[in-house]
Write a structure and sequence with these properties.
Elements (H helix, E strand, L loop, with lengths): L3 H16 L28 H13 L7 H23 L6 H13 L8 H22 L1
Helix pairs in contact: 1-3, 2-3, 2-5, 3-4, 3-5
């Protein structure tokens, strides 16, 4: 069993990969010389097909009916959860995805100027569940 310090280091490593990404638009609309859809993350074990599929899934499953601001924050958070859980699973630490997800949700919630309506919270949580599970399963 890994100690708490090791758990934090693994999550920090994944988070630093995401912070190093220069994407300013959803991965679904971000491309590079080699990839049509990309998170712009420097990680050797993520293939072009992995990025394409995750970017598409994150984009196509974002909840409808949110404000433009909430949609953007929800999508970015979902993408970060999905690709972060993918990387954690590839690194052999998929069980830590719940802790990672909680940290990403907390960080991104402070960027929002608007709060989703209570009736939308369930669909947002369901979307984040989907993103976490899809990222983990895609990595296997």
């Amino acid at each position: 069993m890994l100690d708490t310090h090791t758990n934090c280091n693994i999550i920090e490593k994944v988070h630093s990969l995401l912070l190093a990404s220069k994407r300013c638009m959803p991965a679904h609309f971000t491309s590079s010389a080699e990839r049509s859809q990309t998170f712009l993350i420097s990680y050797d074990d993520i293939t072009e097909n992995d990025e394409y599929e995750m970017a598409s899934q994150a984009w196509n499953n974002v909840p409808s009916g949110l404000s433009e601001t909430d949609t953007a924050i929800c999508l970015r958070t979902g993408e970060d959860i999905m690709v972060g859980c993918f990387i954690l699973t590839k690194m052999g630490h998929g069980v830590k995805s719940d802790k990672y997800r909680a940290e990403i949700e907390l960080i991104n919630s402070y960027e929002s100027n608007e709060i989703a309506k209570p009736s939308q919270v369930e669909s947002i949580i369901s979307y984040f569940d989907f993103c976490e599970n899809y990222g983990r399963k895609r990595a296997l």
